[in-house]
Specification:
Largest interface: A-B, 31 and 30 residues
Strand content of chain A: 15-25%
CATH class of chain A: Alpha Beta
CATH superfamily of chain A: Response regulator
Order of helices and strands of chain A: EHEHEHEHEH
CATH topology of chain A: Rossmann fold
Number of domains of chain A: 1
CATH architecture of the largest domain in chain B: 2-Layer Sandwich
CATH class of the largest domain in chain B: Alpha Beta
Strand order of the largest sheet of chain B: 2-1-5-4-3
Oligomer: heterodimer
Bound molecules: adenosine-5'-triphosphate, magnesium ion
Shape of chain A: globular
Shape of chain B: rod-shaped
Structural class of chain A: alpha/beta
Helix content of chain A: 40-55%
Largest sheet of chain A: 5 strands, parallel
Chain lengths: 122, 561
């Protein structure tokens, strides 16, 4: 079972993703605090991280920077509620999937399946 | 005041006229006085000469009468004399003073001097004197001695004595034997003098009048232009520069007048220039002020819009998470319900739940669309793909989208596309969204039977400015009131019924065109129609470096679908 980590300060989004992805038979973990999320991502053996861009203590960009060193193989899907320069900065660090809230669940599912499939076939 | 001034400071005319006239009068008086004097002198001397001749003739003719003391002879003589009117009286006396004969009224006192006179210088001489008679009337008194020639040769030849040659003078001697006195009237002389005086006075007066007239004329010729000059100078001093001197002389005064006229001409010209300058200055100030006010209003407007934009961005940010939850849970629930219905067969209850949640999903999607539009209006950093856009093609495609709506509303859509429109850099989808908004707004404002015109055209490059393309949407519909015109770009401003319009169309268009470095302009007349003009810049080189910066990676597009 693939392990997915959700980092989002919005409780409703967190809960939604937890319920939805659990229903899709993923091993889902979630936290609302960016710093806690970073340590979880670094220490845990997650396959995918769904990370919000705008959080109080650190941005999605900070999460990416700090986690990538330790876990270069970790896949990222970023979400944001306000399009701004952060998304551009994230793009510069590599090609990442990006979703603008509110997004369609179906779209998220396709992305996740797309990202985790190759790993599964290996 | 003026009169007093004039009396103290006589004008030029008076200065000329007075002395010249005075001179004329004085010289005329002197001349006529001299003439009168000469005239009476000459009249008197004429009388004297004729009187002398007369008395000498008388003396000669009276010789024998006196010699013989023949009163008869002498009376005859005086009778002839009395025929002359000029003779007032005549007296012949002998040496003793006895009156031998007389005629007229004689004043005997006159005779008293005679003897002494005649004894001093006897012989052939005539004495004359102006005397007065008893009545005090002046007359010319003439007296002469009556002589006879006494010859020592013989007394027989006495009657012949006058024929004797002068060579015998030694023997001959003139002897005084009596005296003759005549008084000649001065009446005719005086009359003649009086007549002459009248003539002289008349003549002098005539000459004087003519003289003064001519002098006045000459003085006028000299002073008239000067007076005109003064009058014009006065009007000019009062600020009226339109007057000119009408003096066409070829002398110094004419020259002065011409110089003066050209001086006033240039004065008037420079004054007009100053006035013109002042006027245009005022106009310029008014124009400048208006431009400034416009710019300020525009600034306020765009500040306001950008403030609204920031607010919209904040609202969008706050709404997106709950909206994401609502939409996601709705979709999740729908999925779950569908699964359970397929398992357990259609339960009525579940079917109605499915419908409710689907409604939630639909409304959440609508909210999502609104929020996305709001974000497009606010200066978002969401970069979109910029590509080379053939604006005419984009317009034609947009027309094909909306044509149907125009047809069912019976509004005609006319399209005028400039054939050689340059391509621009932009996002085709966003630009088409703008054109659609403008066309649908124009359609909503129009009545059936009216025409909406869409036009594309070029505004040429000038200097730094690389040129632009313009897209106009013109309708003849109900128009926008001036106070509403300020608000139409604000999000959620709408005059349409609730549910019909969100009031985001123009604010989104505004944001899109702003992100394209373009401008969206509106002019409207209430009841007369509205024209929207979209101005989009044309990059000088088609593949501008700017394009690269603004284009984002291709994978960003998928989430929009
Ligand atoms: N061509 C037009 N003629 C007259 N009024 C217009 C025109 N275009 C816009 N307006 C006015 O401007 C308002 C705002 O227009 P806008 O497109 O922003 O919103 P809307 O059309 O009301 O709603 P929607 O969000 O559906 O476009 C309109 O409600 C209307 O009053
Ligand atoms: Mg509209």
């Amino acid at each position: 079972m693939k392990k997915i980590l959700i980092i989002d300060d919005s409780a409703v989004m967190r809960n939604l993703l937890l319920d939805y992805l659990a229903d899709l038979k993923f091993d889902v973990d979630a936290c609302g605090d960016a710093e806690e999320g970073i340590s979880k991502a670094v220490t845990g053996d997650y396959d995918l991280c769904i990370c919000d861009m705008h959080m109080p203590k650190a941005s999605g960009l900070d999460v990416l920077r700090q986690v990538r060193e330790a876990r270069p193989e970790l896949q990222f899907v970023f979400t944001d509620s306000l399009p701004d320069q952060l998304s551009e900065k994230v793009q510069k660090l590599g090609t990442f999937q990006y979703l603008h809230k509110p997004f369609e669940l179906e779209q998220l599912r396709k992305i996740i399946v797309g990202l985790l499939k190759p790993v599964r076939t290996q | 005041m003026n009169l007093l001034g004039r009396a103290i400071n006589p004008n030029l005319r008076t200065k000329f006229l007075l002395p010249i006239s005075a001179m004329l009068i004085v010289s005329m008086l002197l001349a006529s006085g001299y003439m009168l004097d000469r005239q009476s002198d000459s009249f008197r001397s004429e009388l004297e000469t004729s009187g002398e001749t007369m008395i000498k003739m008388l003396a000669i003719n009276a010789e024998s009468g006196v010699l013989f003391e023949s009163e008869y002879m002498l009376d005859e003589l005086l009778l002839v004399l009395a025929r002359f009117e000029v003779v007032r009286y005549a007296v012949i006396v002998n040496l003793d003073g006895k009156v031998l004969s007389s005629t007229g009224k004689c004043n005997l006192e006159c005779l008293q001097h005679i003897k002494s006179d005649h004894t001093v210088e006897p012989g052939g001489l005539c004495y004359k004197r102006y005397a007065e008679d008893s009545a005090g009337v002046e007359h010319l008194l003439l007296s002469t001695p009556v002589t006879t020639r006494r010859e020592t040769v013989s007394r027989e030849h006495l009657g012949m004595s006058d024929q004797v040659g002068t060579g015998l003078a030694i023997e001959q001697q003139d002897e005084v034997i009596g005296h003759i006195v005549i008084g000649l009237s001065l009446e005719t002389v005086n009359e003649a003098i009086a007549e002459g005086r009248v003539a002289v006075i008349l003549l002098s007066a005539l000459v004087l009048i003519a003289g003064i007239f001519i002098v006045t004329l000459i003085v006028n010729i000299i002073t008239k232009p000067v007076t005109a000059l003064v009058a014009v100078t006065d009007t000019i001093r009062q600020g009226d520069l339109s007057r000119r001197l009408d003096i066409r002389q070829n002398d110094e005064i004419g020259h002065l007048a011409r110089t003066f006229n050209s001086m006033i001409e240039s004065l008037q010209q420079s004054r007009e220039e100053i006035e013109e300058y002042n006027r245009t200055l005022e106009e310029k100030i008014v124009e400048r002020t208006r431009q400034l006010e416009d710019a300020q209003a525009q600034l306020i407007q765009s500040e306001k819009l950008s403030a609204i934009g920031q607010l919209a961005a904040g609202v969008a940010h706050e709404l997106n998470n709950p909206l994401g939850g609502i939409l996601g849970y709705a979709q999740f629930t729908i999925e779950k319900l569908r699964k359970s219905t397929s398992k357990q067969g259609t339960s009525k209850e579940i079917a109605s739940f499915l419908k409710y949640v689907s409604d939630i999903e639909t409304q959440a999607r609508r909210c999502k669309a609104i929020v996305q539009n709001l974000l497009k209006f606010s200066r978002s950093s969401r970069s979109v793909d910029f590509e080379t856009v053939d604006l005419n093609a984009a317009l034609e495609e947009t027309v094909s989208f909306v044509e149907h709506q125009f047809r069912i509303n019976q509004v005609e859509l006319e399209v005028w596309l400039s054939p050689d429109l340059p391509n621009i850099q932009g996002n085709l989808g966003q630009l088409q969204q703008v054109f659609t908004n403008l066309l649908i707004n124009a359609l909503h404002a129009s009545e059936p039977g009216q025409t909406v015109t869409m036009q594309s055209r070029i505004s040429p490059a000038v200097g730094e400015f690389g040129g632009a393309v313009e897209l106009l949407v013109i309708d003849k519909g109900h128009g926008v009131s001036p106070e509403n015109l300020k608000k139409i770009f604000e999000p959620f401003f709408t005059t349409k019924e609730v549910g019909t319009g969100t009031g985001l169309g123009l604010s989104v268009s505004y944001g899109i065109i702003r992100d394209h470095d373009g401008e969206i302009l509106v002019s409207s007349e209430l009841g007369g129609g509205t024209t929207f003009t979209v101005v989009l810049p044309v990059q000088k080189s088609a593949a501008s470096t700017d394009t690269g910066n603004r284009t984002k990676q291709s994978n960003h597009r998928q989430e929009e679908s």
